[in-house]
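User: Some background: our group keeps a shared notebook of sequences we're curious about, and every so often someone picks one and asks for a predicted structure to add to the entry. Today it's my turn. The entry only has the sequence so far, pasted here. Could you supply the structure so I can complete it?
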Amino acid sequence: MTEPFQSKNTPPLWWMIKVAATLLAVARPFWVIAAGGSLWPLPSFVPLFICQVLVLTGAGIHLWHYRLLKTGNASLALPDHLVTKGGLFPWVRHPMYLGDLILIIGFSGILPDVEGLAILLAGVVGLACQAQVEDAELNERFPNAFPPWRTRTRRLIPWVW
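Assistant: Of course. Here's the predicted structure to add to the notebook entry:
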């Protein structure tokens, strides 16, 4: 599997969108507070603590699976073996991206407005593109192990997609 920067001097557009959406989702509440604004500019049916739980859950899922992937692999860019067991891997092929998605949903819910929705949609598009590209790379790198795993699992959201 290649790094986003390995084949070109600039990363792919989908990768830049994903990174920008994640950074904006995380930084936006802090900007609003620093400017003296309120975290709840619009009425919301989602309590703040639910958004906080989503942020912590998403970050936890991401870090947990990063550790699982690093165990036994010298590099995440060029894995030595396909990780299909442990954590959420029996149900989803990209649990780190699932964690990112949950984190972005949580941060977007903290400021439930048009900008938050746009950031969320950009993040989903970027994560979906990255997962699709990595599926193709994993299929090429592990032609015997990846196809059966792909048929048993979902790409990003367990039992759904």
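Suggested note for the entry: Residues 114-141 form the longest helix (28 residues). Residues 62-75+87-156 form one domain.
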